[in-house]
Design goal:
Keywords: Flavoprotein. With 189 residues, the chain is of the alpha+beta class. It is built from four helices and twelve strands, in the order βββββαβααββββαββ. The longest helix has 9 residues. It is globular, with a radius of gyration of 17 Å.
């Protein structure tokens, strides 16, 4: 038997994405967002959903580009700060001591110290109630050189995930099976 929780914004895992875009004066800004994920294979696309009230929403609408920096566990404080401070009021890079890096591929900044970056051109935006979903075509993915030859990037990057039910951040646990493989034994039954 299952107990109803009602219509809530809960799913697992929920990513911690740090979304970067330039403002109208060319200043780099980032914000933390949890509503997002891969939405298409060909062309490779990722979607994020932002409220119109955010500074980043307007920056993406103007620049037609954004990045997603994936913070590691060691940057949990900075990732949280990026979600609670507004780029209208403060330079978040100066406040955290982290470095804005200009993408060579799209017109958007990313966080230099974060180990994984997705660079996107805005393909489409769709208003959905309180949020607008931005669909970005992935133009490049970058990873720290020290991880480039690793078989399991997730174990090296140690990305954060967000738990919407208790408003907390978590790390990722151990691998429990190989995709498209571990379930094959059930074919024999």
């Amino acid at each position: 038997m299952k107990k109803s929780l009602g219509a809530k914004t809960i799913t697992y895992p929920t990513p911690v994405f740090v979304v970067g875009a330039y403002d109208s004066e060319g200043n780099p800004n980032v914000m933390t967002a949890a509503w997002g994920g891969i939405c298409c294979s060909v062309p490779p696309c990722i979607a994020i959903s932002l409220r119109e009230a955010t500074y980043t929403y307007h920056n993406i609408m103007d620049s037609k580009a954004f990045t997603i920096s994936i913070p590691s566990e060691e940057h949990v404080k900075e990732a949280d700060y990026f979600g609670i401070a507004s780029g209208k009021d403060v330079n978040k890079f100066q406040a955290t001591g982290l470095s804005p890096v200009k993408s060579e591929v799209v017109n958007a900044p990313y966080v230099g110290e974060f180990p994984f970056v997705i660079e996107c051109e805005l393909l489409q935006s769709v208003k959905i109630g309180l949020h607008t979903q931005f669909i970005g075509e992935i133009k490049d993915v970058k990873v720290d050189e020290s991880f480039a030859d690793e078989d399991s990037l997730i174990e090296k990057i140690k990305p954060l995930i967000y738990s919407p039910d208790n408003l907390s951040y978590y790390g990722i646990g151990k691998m429990v099976g190989k995709a498209f493989s571990v379930g094959k034994e059930l074919n024999k039954k």
